[in-house]
Amino acid sequence: MTPELTVEIREKRFPTPDGMTRTVLHDISFRSRLGEFIAIVGPSGCGKTTLLNIVAGLDTDFSGAVLLDRRRPNRVRIGYVFQQPRLLPWRTVLENVMLVLPEGAGERARRLLQEVGLGEALETYPSRLSIGMARRAAIARAFIVEPELLVMDEPFVSLDAATADRLRLLLLRLWRSHPTGALLVTHDLREAVTLADRILLLSDAPGRLLADVAVPLARHARTDAAAIERIHGEIAAEQRRLFAAEPPPQRIPTRAI
Amino acid sequence: MTISTGDASITAAEAAAAKPVARALPYRLASFAVLLAVWEIAAHCAHLRALPSVETVAVVLGEEIRDGALPFHLAVTLARVLVAFLVAMAGGVAIGLAMGRWWRVDLLLDGWIIVLLNLPALVIAVLFYVWFGLTDAAAVGAVALNKLPLVAMTMREGARALERDYAEMAEVFHVPRWRRFRHVVAPQLVPFVLVATRSGLALVWKIVLVVELLGRSDGIGFQLQLYFQLFDVPRILAYALAFVAVVQLIEWGLLQPLERRVLRWRR
Predict the structure, then answer these.
(1) A188-191: long-range pairs with CB below 8 Å, 24+
(2) CB burial class (10 A; 0-12, 13-18, 19+) of residue A246?
(3) Which of A11, A171, A223, B74 is the residue whose CA sits 20 to 30 A from A111?
């Protein structure tokens, strides 16, 4: 039911203001297994959001290919949780969620919003929501389309620790009841360990795949702080080793178009 | 800034927003009273024929309303305003959005817009009367053409200001085209449409009178010209006042409630 994701990015370049181009991503290939939760971890500015936009089909100007089974991303139901919630400020919470649904699916939207704890805020405009509540609404919007692939861009950034923890648990709960392949971008390795089955470590810009690590933690053990801490330590050490082995940072190559 | 109206579907947020408005009403009335007082004093000090007193104008106003002349000419002018306004808005919105959306259209039309913006209203009006005869179509067309470039400029800015983030959101979630326009694009354009409406109406009011004065035999502009030639200052003031009152009514009764309604999500 959930398709297998194949990502093969040879290179992604952006034009620079001086008429040259700058490479932001190169040599990133991976394949997801059925219903797998993958976290992409890398330093800020390494092209993580660009990578997500390519996977979600928002950016098609790159060399390589992204396929879900045999379909291009724009033919797949994708639930995207953006870094900013991107709720329409002129529509209520309920209307924002209904926007992405077929007509007449209001009951489902209401139920899901209740499930994420926004039952009292259905008719509220986003400007009156706390950032945590806005994030909940954005998560509900991503799940309501019954996504074949869930894509999340730092969905818990700029929340206080307690709220972020609650939202992570909410995400896991929803994900368990609506199983789907998931791709999460974060700079927080601990968060990646808590949520993901597998972690892709990216290099400094231009982003390149450094390592593909499995998280040896059962699904029911995701609240086991000690285990998370231990695995986080191991992967962090691995990440430091990989970064140390990187060639010293150099000027990002630019070239004429 | 606004005054409260009998809108049945008023929400709590709107009621809250309307509160300072109710408080503003005494100030509005006071400022109007000051105007009347200054007028009355000036009328008694100055030459009576050039500046009639408030009562004189009020009596004349009553006469003009009773014999049906003022309502008739006002209706004629309002009809012209309405048609010219709608034509200019429709054309200007379409052209402006196209210019904001496609750079080729922008380059093609930009020069025309600048020329039209700077062409005096009088020139357009005179040329239209010369080319198309002293008809209502020419009058209304001239007014519409005067206003259209302003609307187009405003809407071009609107189209350029569309938030990419929301467009991406709609794209990734496969929001159907019409729904995308209605819920994602149109609400972002509303403030620009309101600005165009505001500035547009203000302009249309003025130019319609000029066009009527030049080449029509009815409407407020025609009446003003007639009484100017007769040097009938009370009637000039009566017509001008009636016209201003109607403009204010539309502003308070129509534009401001509409604005509050469509922008009620703002905090």
Answers:
(1) A188/A41, A188/A156, A189/A41, A189/A232, A189/A235, A189/A236, A189/A239, A190/A228, A190/A232, A191/A39, A191/A156, A191/A164
(2) exposed
(3) A223
* ipTM metric: 0.88
A88–B187 CB contact, under 8 Å: yes
Q: Which helix (H) or strand (E) element contains residue A117?
A: none
| Mean pLDDT, residues B29-38 taken together | 88
How far away is chain B from the Cα of A63, in angstroms, using its nearest Cα? 21
pLDDT digits (tens, 9 = 90+) for B62-94: 999 999 999 999 999 999 999 999 999 999 999
Residue A88 with chain B: CB contacts under 8 Å: 166, 183-184, 187
Specify burial of residue A169 (Cβ count, 10 A radius: 0-12, 13-18, 19+): middle
Alpha carbon A47 to chain centroid, angstroms: 13
Chain B residue numbers touching A79 (CB-CB < 8 A)? 173
8 A C-beta contact, residue A98 and residue B175: no
User: Residues near A82 by Cβ (< 8 Å), separated by ≥ 6?
Assistant: A138, A153, B165, B168, B169
How many other C-beta atoms are found inside a 10 Å radius of the C-beta of residue B198? 14
The owner of tokens 């009809």 is: B79
pLDDT in tens, A1-31: 578 899 999 999 998 888 888 889 989 999 9
Tokens of A11: 């290179």
pLDDT, position B1: 33
Q: Is the peptide bond before A155 cis (omega within 30 degrees of 0)?
A: no
**Interstrand relation of A63-68 and A5-15 (parallel, antiparallel or unpaired):** antiparallel
Residue A202 near residue A48, CB atoms below 8 Å: yes
Contacts of A145 in chain B (CB under 8 A): 173
CA distance A196 to A2: 17
Using alpha carbons, list the distances in angstroms from residue B115 to B71, B86, B120, B127, B129.
37, 22, 10, 15, 20
Looking at the predicted structure, is the pLDDT value of residue B127 above 50?
yes
Of B165, B175, B266, the CB nearest to A99: B175
Lookup: tokens for A26: 């190169």
Rounded to whole angstroms, the Cα distance separating B166 from B182 reads 13
Instruction: Please give the pLDDT value at position B3.
Output: 34
Coil vs helix vs strand at A199: strand
Nearest of A114, A117, A112 to residue A147 by alpha carbon: A112
Q: DSSP string spanning A126-184?
A: GGGS-HHHHHHHHHHHHHHT--SEEEEESTTTTS-HHHHHHHHHHHHHHHHHS--EEEE
Cα-atom radius of gyration of chain A, to the nearest Å? 19
Q: Where are the beta strands (DSSP E) in B75-178?
A: none
Cβ contact B64:B70 at 8 Å: yes
